[in-house]
Amino acid sequence: MKTYSPTGILAARSGYRINLVGLVSFFVVLFWALVALFAPYIAPHSVGEMVDLDYFGPMRPGLWLGSDYLGRDMLSRVIFGARYTVGISLAAVSIACFTGVVLGMTSAVLRGPVDMVVSRLLDALNSIPSKLFGLMVVAAVGSSIPVLILTLSVIYVPGAYRFSRALAVNIDTMDFVMVARIRGEKLPYLIGSEILPNILGPVLADLGLRFVFIVLLLSGLSFLGLGVQPPYADWGALVRENIGGLPFAAPAVIVPSLAIATLTISVNLLIDNLPQKIRDRSAS
Amino acid sequence: MTKTPDSWTRTDDSMVENAIRRGANRRDLLKMLLAGGMSLPAIDLVLGRANAAVSDEPVKGGALKAAGWSSSTADTLDPAKASLSTDYVRCCAFYNRLTFLDKAGIPKMELAKSIDTDDAKTWTIKLRTGVTFHDGKSLTADDVVFSLKRHLDPAVGSKVAKIAAQMTDIKAADKSTVVITLAGANADLPTILSMHHFMIVADGTTDFSKGNGTGAFICKSFEPGVRSIGVRNPNYWKGGPHVDSFEFFAISDDNARVNALLSGDIHLAAAINPRSTRLVDGQQGFSLSKTTSGNYTNLNIRLDMEPGTRKDFVDGMKYLVNREQIVKSALRGFGEVGNDQPVSPASPFHNAALKPKPFDPEKAKSLFKKAGLLGQSIPVITSDAASSAIDMAMVVQAAGAEIGMKLDVQRVPSDGYWSNYWLKAPVHFGNINPRPTPDILFSLLYASEAPWNESRYKSEKFDKMMLEARATLAWEKRKELYDQMQVMIAEEAGTIIPAYISNVDAITNKLKGLAPNPLGGMMGYAFAEYVWLTA
Amino acid sequence: MTNLVEIRGLTVEATTDSGRWIQILKGIDLDIAAGETVAFIGESGSGKTTAAMTLLGYARPGCRISGGTVKVDGHDMVTLSEKERAALRGTTVAYVPQSAAAAFNPAATIMDQVIEVTRIHRLMPPDEARRRAVALFRALSLPDPDGIGDRYPHQVSGGQLQRLAAAMALIGDPKVVIFDEPTTALDVTTQVEVLRAFKAVTAQRRIACVYVSHDLAVVAQIADRIMVLRNGAVQETGSVHDILTRPTHPYTKELLHAFHPDTGGRAALPVTDDTAPLLEINTLSAGYGPPQSNGQPLVLAVKGVSLQVRRGTNLGIIGESGCGKSTLARSIAGILPACKGDIQFNGKELWHSARQRSHDQLRDLQIVFQHADTALNPAKSIEDILGRPLTFYHGLRGKARDVRVDALLDMVRLPRALRHRRPAELSGGQKQRVNFARALAAEPKLILCDEITSALDTVVAAAIIDLLKELQRELGLSYVFISHDLSVIEAICDEIIVMYRGQTVETIIPAARQQPQHPYSKLLFSSVPKLDPTWLDTLNIDADRMRVA
Amino acid sequence: MKSRVPSLILGRLLIALVTLTIVSFAVFFATTMLPGDTAMILLGQSATPEAVAGLRAAMHLDEPALLRFLYWIGGLFQGDLGTSYANQMPVTTLIADRLANTLKLAGLTTLVTVPLALTLGITAAMWRGTLYDRIVTIATIGVISVPEFVLATLAVLVFAVYLKWLPALSFTYQVDSFSGLLRVYAMPVITLTFVVSAQMIRMSRAAVIETLNTPYVEMALLKGASRPRMVLRHALPNALGPIANAVALSLSYLVGGVIIVETIFNYPGIAKLMVDGVSTRDLPLIQSCAMIFCFGYLLLITTADIVAILSNPRLR
């Protein structure tokens, strides 16, 4: 799929082919991860402190990213928001993909009634629009971060399932799976050692895209009242609560939007351009 | 206004207005203003504004479009079930009440010609004659009796069943006279009857989807959760509304509502976010209509549960709430500082002598220490459901953080807030709509047996005073009682009312005749029949 | 005489993972005259296909023509623009792919694809193109020439598709046609028909041909001259007669030698009649699809087959594709549970389904699949692939396992350094050795070999067979050897069963120099190409008629 | 050869039916588990115990859930979706107009999105590795990274508030001419196009690239075919199955997932109706809407499956 010219190759000394795009993306993701990790140490203000008498204030010394709709320091809010956006999305996407992929591979390997039942159930789940599902969950059990993570995961399990099942079904027809099967291998080995390594690439790419959707859905859910507790807010919620500043081109709405875009785009480009081990046949 | 020249002031505006009134034509004015050093575009702006101010003669015609902020499939044209502003607006357009409140809060007659009583217990209501319903039927006492008695039937599910319950007997004395007997004396009945739920419907009505009333507009279409359209009632007994038709719907998204106004899709955007005012203010051809009625969002501490059982904690919280900052930051100046009691300055009974508690974190700190709660985490439930409650919580939380008082603000979904958290959590936010009389407020919110006693305030003395005031016809005497009761609430109850929130409606300057009303924004929701549109 | 094709100093480079370019064709010179057929021969990876494709001005993705000239009919394919090259493809130079089944678009009718060349180059109106195509179908002796074009590729057999691919190449009246291993995937009986058809048509139209193959016998039937390639360099070029009779280059000699496999070297059967057979099968039936009312599957591929394998002996099963031989192997292995009959192994009755068989039974009966590409997990290292059965069956871990992996690599004559590689980094022969080593790791009593040499070059296949024989001597194994290639089976088996349409038609014991009796067996045996260049022309069998019978 | 198509299609339809049955169970019991008493919510701030009990009895809320489920299923089969708790109107009446609106918006968006997305996806695959391809790929991820309420609000600000070209709201009844239709639907359609096309672009690009790597496409190249011919004649017909699947998944979003667009443009569609239903605990309404969403989803997915079956001559 990738046919980047060899000029994009930076270092071959490590035995891995590293792509410039991948490298830049990696640093962006790393940057946000560090921001999330050290948020309390680098934020100039506390997250709920109102430091500006004005609202939607412009960027200026002291308030480097302006102020939000309550006159709070936007820089601090974005820094703390990184914790929630990165943390929650990562947790949710991991749970969703893990569950979906394991179920997908299991269905592909076992076929028959298991496949039928799991496929139908997840199809049914998938047919309920995600935001409405979120709404029902909030109505039923209320809102907290674990509920949030779980809801987001449940919403994206069917997608991951469908995707990985389709891949796994193809792998399952390969003779090496058959060899393992007639060796007497059990399910965990079949899916973990024979199938998973062969679908990992596409699964990771899918995970990247799902990460974007989860970040966005998180902001959509904050719109429905299922979200991070104030005064904290994830980036989507920051955009949402400051959307009134859009007509004034307030940094309060632009900065978190940019933060979302940089993170999601980088995650995807990073996955598309992961370092590849150089396997040089000529060397053999 | 940002676009006018610096030297131009409101006084100058009025000078131009006066000139126009005296008969100055455009050329005269141009000469005058150019001489004063103004540029042509600026002059256009000023003239436009002045012309608009001057043309206060109502004009007939036009299709009025307005947007509220909430609507759902639960929208109804049944006045008894009306619960949202949207319902009130529609009811006001299609029906009439016996009385209504003018902008000073004084009850005026609408379908009633007169309301008389000797003892505030038995009331005789004479009806107007010559009033007809949209379907042609004439208004009689039977319609009034039916309309009022409905509230007593539990199957109807009336929102004001509790208030209506005091009407123990409602009967028609003759074709145009109704006699109401109350369980106990209540001098406020004419005001109570001005509530939107007491709209008069035709006798025997079961299907309310037609909106058959005596009001200024005839219902042409009503789609719950979508919109309603009314057309001018040609036989309206008051002499007809100014506009030809009236379309009302809700745009729940704040920004979308303002944008719809700015793009010219609607003439009025009700209850806009204080932060959007800057946007409207900056635009030519639009203005804001501000109404400060009794709407407020309050912080409730239940006195019957931890930590509210500790009086020092409740008092401490009252000193921790920075009322000035709430008005400034959370409300952006669209509100008035409150003094912890529900009777707003819009009411003639407001106790202005009762001063709001000052913001005194040190005092709060010492009180919390005394209560033994300093450093502990106290959950505070808030939600979008109560307007500005989250922002207020932020202000209080930040202040608490300064003195080491950890307030654990928990935002919960607005959906289901009123049934699941309000009145139930130990510390939570509430939001109370304007009510026409102190008596209704007190009996609803502060009497020992009040259904919505938010802080579980119990005082026999207070209950006794309430009954006494209710039966008192002399205004001075009642005012005195109510003043005392307001002080009691502020000092003893666990409800912190930091501010009375202004309702801000944004309108296009083409819309004329809108005036504030103590029953709420949009002229107490009844604006449609009073306003007119200029070209 | 000016030649139709003139190749001078042709070099082709390929890129590696690290982005380096390495030469895979190292300076090739060749002339081909009009009407002449030149065969490119060599093992896989020798560059023969790459060389042939340069005639189309084409290098596969990741490759590029880096030097030299390839003049075809006066045009230098190297320096032409892509547009000009496209104009020559299909009209001047045409290509017949190795696997016609893959080269036909499954979503379009055969006729549309055959006449596509005339559409692309606007050679003639569609109606005329269709008439021409039908004439070609007839010339290539395809059945139902008028109707076959309306079918979809999956509706015709492999041999027919191969001929249809030739029709597709010939319709634009090319001056040069490249045949890229066009018969490698076919049964011997089919191969005969296809070769005949090709030879007839190209001779009649005086078309210059490039015939890419690793099969010397096939090439001998069709080519005028042979160019032997190895590692991207020409080893030897000469007339068919010269190459077959006076090979000068060692590699050519090796190739020729591989053609006369060592049928001896096996002692006569250690006949010990007292021992019970290792594997005994009685009236076994198996098939695919949902069970019908009579309890049989929808398609019955094996119909009541009985056979026996004695300890230390090898059984060969031969037949053309679709005869049920692979199904038989799969039902013995328990992959496809048989619907009828019984299997006795090592004195015990075996369950039909592998799921129900015991650990030991699974270990003692191993199967090796034809395609090492799909039989080896591409994501795992050789070490892991070989180590897993050691851990699974024998509980070996750590050092002990490492030692045993090394021993296995030694056993199959692979360098120990390969243990850290992945299958994709190995050659076809190396992969098949790993595939086999994995079966050995279980220390089985019987190995089912399902066409394990079919995908390999002659030289490599011969080496694998030698290895198998050696291992049998050392380890006392038994093999059931399934193949369509008679020479392979003859080389290793003590007994040969001929299968036809799901049934066994004949049992032959090679050691007894027994000749086939059954007409189908006769056809099968006589269809195996011989190195004699006149073999095809003198062969007097009619495969089509035989098949109908 | 016997055609397997009818039996395969029948199989797909059966699977859809099974799923729909599961969904109906799940929907009914999930909604009845929603906390908050319907009667209490309807009465709002004036709920007294007597009033609540009266209302509950009037709405049959006091009967067991299983019985109500059977009533409901029975009603569904007769086309009776029940009566709204919130305003006593038949749910069918409430839904009819809203559903028509939703379908109109979805239909128009489909008309714009599908050709656009497929063109971009296929051309990106055609020239894969080029600058054009990279721009399309990165722009696609970029577009999905913007929350849709930002897109919608930005569109309103630019086109309605500043330029005044288009109305900020979508009044469906103003569609009396083609230009009226454009004015009303332009902005919601543009917003939704951004939202749903990204996924389609990515998937169609991947599907075409997959088939471009097959020997028959190489064969077409060796026959002298041009790039467009290779892609359109050879790669595309074989990529139809996965593309149809991606299109169906994206379009299913248009049925139930457009709450935000409906809110911002005040478009009376069915998603907002269901949100209303949840906040008023109007169970018959929620259930009906959920069933419609699920039905729409299954219809689309099943159609995609059938397209895949039909586009595969091996099954014919």
From TrEMBL, chain A:
GO BP annotations listed: transmembrane transport
Localization per Swiss-Prot or TrEMBL: Cell membrane
Ranges where the ABC transmembrane type-1 domain occurs: 82-271
SUPFAM superfamilies tied to this protein: MetI-like
Membrane topology: Multi-pass membrane protein
Alphabetical UniProt keywords: Cell membrane, Membrane, Transmembrane, Transmembrane helix, Transport
Listed InterPro entries: BP-dependent_transpt_permease, MetI-like, MetI-like_sf
Domain of life of the source: Bacteria
A Pfam short name: BPD_transp_1
GO CC terms in record: plasma membrane
Transmembrane segments: 20-43, 84-111, 132-157, 203-228, 248-271
Family: Belongs to the binding-protein-dependent transport system permease family.
Protein name from the UniProt record: ABC transporter permease
Organism expressing this protein natively: Azospirillum lipoferum
Automatic annotation (TrEMBL), chain B:
Family listed: Belongs to the bacterial solute-binding protein 5 family.
One GO molecular-function entry: peptide transmembrane transporter activity
Solute-binding protein family domain span: 108-448
Localisation: Periplasm
One of the GO biological process terms: peptide transport
Organism of provenance: Azospirillum lipoferum
GO CC terms in record: ATP-binding cassette (ABC) transporter complex; outer membrane-bounded periplasmic space
Protein name per UniProt: ABC transporter substrate-binding protein
Pfam families given in the database record: SBP_bac_5
Matching PROSITE patterns: TAT (PS51318)
Domain of life: Bacteria
InterPro entries on file: Peptide/Ni-bd, SBP_5, SBP_5_dom, TAT_signal
SUPFAM superfamilies: Periplasmic binding protein-like II
UniProtKB/TrEMBL annotation, chain C:
Molecular function terms, GO-annotated: ATP binding; ATP hydrolysis activity
Pfam families with a match to the protein in the record: ABC_tran, oligo_HPY
One Gene Ontology biological process: transmembrane transport
Membrane topology recorded in Swiss-Prot or TrEMBL: Peripheral membrane protein
Protein name per the record: ABC transporter ATP-binding protein
InterPro entries in UniProt: AAA+_ATPase, ABC_transp_ATP-bind, ABC_transporter-like_ATP-bd, ABC_transporter-like_CS, Oligopep_ABC_C, P-loop_NTPase
Record keywords, A-Z: ATP-binding, Nucleotide-binding, Transport
Similarity annotation: Belongs to the ABC transporter superfamily.
A cellular component term, taken from the record's GO annotations: plasma membrane
Lineage summary: Bacteria, Pseudomonadati, Pseudomonadota, Alphaproteobacteria, Rhodospirillales
Automatic annotation (TrEMBL), chain D:
Keywords in alphabetical order: Cell membrane, Membrane, Transmembrane, Transmembrane helix, Transport
Its membrane topology: Multi-pass membrane protein
Transmembrane annotation, as ranges: 12-34, 105-127, 139-162, 182-201, 239-265, 285-310
Major location category of this protein: membrane
Gene Ontology terms: cellular component: plasma membrane
ABC transmembrane type-1 domain boundaries: 99-310
Subcellular location: Cell membrane
Any GO BP annotation: transmembrane transport
SUPFAM superfamilies according to UniProt: MetI-like
Family of the protein in this entry: Belongs to the binding-protein-dependent transport system permease family.
Protein name: ABC transporter permease
Protein's organism: Azospirillum lipoferum
